[in-house]
Amino acid sequence: xxxxxxxxxxxxxxxxxxxxxxxxxxxxxxxxxxxxxxxxxxxxxxxxxxxxxxxxxxxxxxxxxxx
Length: 67
What we know:
The chain has helices at residues 3-29, 37-66. The protein is mainly alpha-helical.
């Protein structure tokens, strides 16, 4: 994938991950203690994957402009 195609993917993954984090906090605050595994996995890994892809995309884009 090229850098311009990675940036929207990174933003989307990060946003979904942040929404999952908010959902975990809201559900925990309302008294739910046994949350689904997929929600915990999404809240744990999606923001990190999105941030990592965003950093990779920005570095690749910066290197393309130099050459």
